[in-house]
Amino acid sequence: MIHGMKHLLTSQRGFSLVELSIVLVIVALLSSSLMFGLSAQRDAAANLEARTQLDMAKEALLGFAITNGRLPCPATPTLANTDTNAGIEDRTNAASPCNRRYGVLPWVTLGLPETDPWGQRLTYYADSAFTGPLSAGVLASFTLDTVGNANIKDNPVSGYNVASELPAVLLSHGPRSDGGYQSTGTKLGTPTGDEAENADLNTTFISHTASTNFDDLVTWIVPAILKSRMVAVGKLP
User: What is the pLDDT of residues 11-53, one digit of tens each?
Assistant: First the structure.
């Protein structure tokens, strides 16, 4: 009877330290896997949201051109959103050319959100040949023969262009945000590598799949689409 009681007590004493350690390791592994999965889902959702935002911005640019006969000027990137001129195309008056070719998307002018999912404004380049003021008696500031000067490459030293003669380029600087502007007008980080080409104020931009050193999301206005939309509403030729 005593032997039976001892056996019962021994069998009911619970987990050993080794067994508890194994359980804790398993729980930790499961938790980290769950957290990694949730983080990956959040990143994927943010990237999808940014892509959707870029597509909407591109359509808004095309819509502006259809209505006004030109693309809008970029907005000044360094203005805080408390400034009355923030988010408005940087143009002195309707009869003057743009004050800049490189800036941020004029979100107020277009009626769009100010920032992307990572809290930065969208960088916007617009060729002056497509943003100029309208001359008397014409419906568009450019013609069917007008070509842009922006180019897209898959790396800075590539001998060919992914796209060329573009009137406008639009981009998000991605989750790292280096090169982007915040709502305060502050520029974020110092872009390096391929990302530096998207923030150096020239007409060459880089677009390729994301990597450990590149997370910019880039889109552009295709000249044939822009001109065909203008023809469709009678603004060209």
Answer: 455 567 777 777 777 777 766 666 656 666 788 888 899 999 9
Q: Are 197 and 204 in contact (CB under 8 A)?
A: yes
Render pLDDT for 178-233 as a digit per residue (tens, 0 to 9).
Answer: 999 999 999 999 999 999 999 999 999 999 999 989 999 999 999 999 999 999 99
Pairing of strands 168-172, 163-166: unpaired
Q: Which residues pair with 206 in a beta bridge?
A: 153
Question: Alpha carbon of 9 to those of 20, 43, 162, 199, 228: distances in Å?
Answer: 19, 52, 75, 72, 86
Burial class (CB in 10 A: 0-12, 13-18, 19+), 150: buried
pTM of the model: 0.83
Full DSSP string of 40-102: HHHHHHHHHHHHHHHHHHHHHHHHHHHHHSSPPPPBPTTS-TTSTTTTSB-BSSTTS-BS-SE
Q: Do residues 66 and 230 touch, judged by C-beta distance below 8 A?
A: yes
Q: 47: closest CA among 221, 162, 173?
A: 173
Residues 6+ apart with CB under 8 A from 70: 130, 131, 132, 133, 134, 140, 141, 142
